[in-house]
Write a structure and sequence with these properties.
Blueprint (H helix, E strand, L loop, with lengths): L15 H9 L6 H24 L2 H6 L7 H20 L3 H11 L3 H28 L1 H22 L7 H21 L6 H26 L4 H21 L9 H25 L5 H7 L2 H12 L7 H24 L11
Length: 344
């Protein structure tokens, strides 16, 4: 049995039969090649759609009842979303077999699942506390703006795909735009403690993004991987939720916030993100995920009345151009992500 976390491009992920067929086919483009070149664009769109769903997280959490702590909101979100994702993963007999195969994998696979599930848990606790301390726009921008750098480093250190010049330029421009957005995003200064927690959230994000990308690019279904990661996180956060004040969950407003966070920003968002990881590498996906702070900042401006200066708007535009250049470049340049193995 091959290791399901083999780095993209390793021999174990290529089919000998596929190699023979590729040598036999003419080099002129055909329908199959056109379909293959369209898949990275579809993956980028899926990641962007997932990021748009995440971008509403901070705004939705803002409407939680007054007695809801950041920790309890994040824990409730994963308790619901994680259990639903796990239920989706094991809904069919084929899904249950896929989950069993992944859990019966090598020690490295099981370690990746455990570390990634812990990182999902850590992200929730750090992110929601950071947003509460330093505001939706700044908390989201710092957390997600730092994640591409962390992801690129982790991916490279763990044998991931080479970071090309387009990714470096787009990431630099997007992070610069996020920095401008933070600098001009609000008239009040950012909380140093909140910024540190947002950076910790970005690091946790990078950990589970790289782990999920490796597992999905090795041929495992995104519903299987996300179900195990978020189902595991739900178990890890259950004691946190149990020891928190949960009376707010019994209110209509609290229930509505929890359902939105669990089903839209978690289940829908991460299934779309997982779908994108089939054809988009982790560093590219996380850079495309910088659409999240753009959505968050716009919602903070429109819905919550958070003030954005002209400088902050320039930052938003810079991020938008960087993401568009990266996504369109993927469409023109062909596959950018790891090769896709057989469905697991």
């Amino acid at each position: 049995m091959r290791d399901l976390t083999e780095p993209p491009g390793s021999p174990g992920l290529r089919s000998p039969a596929g190699s023979a067929l590729s040598r036999a086919q003419p080099s002129s483009p055909g329908p199959e090649r056109e379909a293959a070149s369209a898949r990275p664009a579809g993956g980028a769109i899926a990641v962007l759609a997932g990021a748009a769903a995440w971008g509403s997280t901070g705004t939705a959490a803002h409407f939680a009842p007054r007695g809801a702590s950041s920790v309890s909101v994040g824990s409730a979100r994963i308790a619901l979303g994680g259990l639903v994702l796990l239920a989706i993963a094991v809904w069919t007999a084929e899904g249950r077999r896929a989950v069993a195969r992944l859990l019966a994998g090598s020690r490295r696979v099981r370690a990746s699942l455990a570390v990634a599930a812990a990182a999902v848990s850590g992200y929730q606790l750090c992110f929601f506390t950071a947003v509460r301390m330093t505001g939706v726009a700044i908390g989201t921008v710092v957390a997600i703006g730092s994640a591409p750098v962390f992801t690129g480093l982790l991916s490279k250190l763990t044998g991931g795909p080479r970071l090309d010049r387009r990714w470096m330029l787009a990431t630099a421009a997007a992070v610069a735009g996020c920095t401008v957005l933070v600098g001009g995003g609000r008239s009040a200064g950012a909380s140093p403690g909140g910024v540190l927690l947002a950076l910790a959230a970005g690091f946790c994000y990078a950990i589970y993004a790289v782990a999920a990308a490796r597992l999905i690019s090795a041929g495992n279904q995104e519903s299987t991987v996300m179900g195990l990661l978020f189902g595991g996180a739900a178990v890890l956060l259950a004691p946190v939720l149990a020891t928190s004040s949960t009376g707010w969950l019994l209110t209509g407003r609290g229930l509505a916030v929890t359902v939105y966070l669990g089903l839209v920003t978690t289940v829908l968002g991460y299934l779309l993100y997982g779908r994108g990881l089939r054809t988009v590498s982790a560093p590219v996906a996380v850079t495309l995920g910088l659409a999240e702070p753009v959505v968050a900042a716009m919602l903070g401006l429109i819905v919550l009345g958070e003030r954005l200066t002209p400088t902050a708007l320039i930052g938003l535009i810079l991020v938008g151009f960087a993401l568009a250049a990266l996504a369109l470049g993927r469409r023109r340049g062909g596959p950018a992500g790891p090769p896709v193995g057989p469905p697991g």
